[in-house]
């Protein structure tokens, strides 16, 4: 790859394989990574209390404008690629989104039933906005309007079933070459992981690559209190899934 560096904004909701995807890109020698740079700004603006709340607030800028300037600024280490792991729910309505138009935006999706069941294992209270599906559709529409076509969309299960094929398709969609290094990595924590890693990253810290998928849990597995959220999220998810890369 030659020319200006490419800043990749990968937009995911929580309880997806977003950290494993970050590992895959960090395994490339040409790629820097950033882990959820708007997390502290999101917590500061909402007043929500998450695990390790004070540590998160102290670890990053709480000013979304300053974070936007940072992610649009110089690429760490002068690398050709900068993979930024972003959570869709962190993009609150009052946050400026102009910086997003300078990114190569891509979207990582997972069925809402599976997200909800995984999320409540870590945090009991959840809303549709907190799993980020409405915001993911908004961000997709913004990127599609700018490009005049759908930006790259991949599903987590497709990555786990066929890592090489799905990541190759993603790289083509981003206009970069696929690197075999993306398929494996050393276990353990990274200096690039957010300070919240002890609360959320136990599985990925043990991983050395993309594990085969487990059977995805379905709507009937949900407790009754979560079923309305899954029903509301399903058409949003399906709208994005229509654009999945082959």
Secondary-structure blueprint:
Elements: E1 6-12, H1 18-26, E2 31-35, H2 39-46, H3 53-59, H4 64-71, E3 81-87, E4 104-109, H5 112-122, H6 133-147, E5 153-155, H7 156-161, H8 163-174, H9 197-200, H10 202-206, H11 227-241
Parallel strand pairs: 1-3, 1-4, 2-3, 4-5
Structural features, described:
- The chain has 246 residues and is an alpha/beta fold.
- The protein is built from 11 helices and 5 strands, in the order βαβαααββααβααααα.
- It has a 5-stranded parallel beta sheet, with helices on both faces.
- The longest helix has 15 residues.
- The mean pLDDT is 94.
Give the structure's gist in a few sentences.
This protein is α/β, with parallel strands linked by helices.
The strand line-up of the biggest sheet is: 2-3-1-4-5
* Radius of gyration, whole Å: 17 Å
Uncertain residue ranges: none
Could you spell the SSE succession in H and E letters?
A: EHEHHHEEHHEHHHHH
Major sheet characteristics: 5 strands, parallel
Please tell me the CATH architecture by its name.
3-Layer(aba) Sandwich
Helix count, DSSP H or I runs of 4 or more residues: 11
CATH fold group: Rossmann fold
What's the CATH class, please? Alpha Beta
Shape: globular
Keywords: Amino-acid biosynthesis, Branched-chain amino acid biosynthesis, Hydrolase
GO molecular function: hydrolase activity
Family: Belongs to the class-IV pyridoxal-phosphate-dependent aminotransferase family.
Protein name: HAD family hydrolase
